[in-house]
């Protein structure tokens, strides 16, 4: 049976919540600033209206693991460690950071637009526009947890990852927008058990 928190534990919890709040203001302020700049960059590309958008599947897996880690850390800090401001604040601060990264992931979706694709990086301020008229070939490489999509351009390739169940939708959108061949590759030998 868990004992009721003492007044000093409540005070520590409130101080820890304040520390997490301050970190949250910094993290979410940076998120809003970066998102405004990214949205202005995308608007300046004039790629048309949104047709659909897709999350980066690998980052979704990373964020799911991050949330599980925050839950485990919270259980350890709040249930096993002796009460202290650090024990109370660490799970909250890391939880705020994971929430900020999760929101960034949602905001930085790969967008399929009427005139092309907009591929955005979750961690960096890279926004890459791909006009449908520049596409030479599209390759889908299925993997164990996600499908990699490689857009072949005359001088480079631009890639992004989607969930495997979204592959047919992306293929349909790309086939209707470009005359470039759309190919499915076999998974590499190293991906098989």
Number of helices: 4
What is the helical fraction, as a range of percent? 40-55%
Sheet-strand content, in percent, reads: 15-25%
The value of Rg in angstroms is 22 Å
* Poorly predicted spans: 189-193
* Mean pLDDT score: 88
User: How many β-strand stretches?
Assistant: 8
- Gross morphology is elongated
Major sheet, described briefly?
4 strands, antiparallel
Distance between the termini: 46 Å
Series of H and E elements: HEHHEEEEEEHE
Helix-and-strand structural type: alpha+beta
Strand order of the largest sheet: 1-2-3-4
Describe the structure.
With 193 residues, the protein is α+β, with helices and mostly antiparallel strands. Helices cover 50% and strands 22% of the residues. The chain has 4 helices and 8 strands. The strands form 2 sheets. The protein has a 4-stranded antiparallel β-sheet, with helices on both faces. Strand 2 and strand 3 form a beta hairpin. The longest helix is centred in the N-terminal third of the chain and has 39 residues, at 7-45. It is elongated. Residues 189-193 have low confidence and may be disordered.
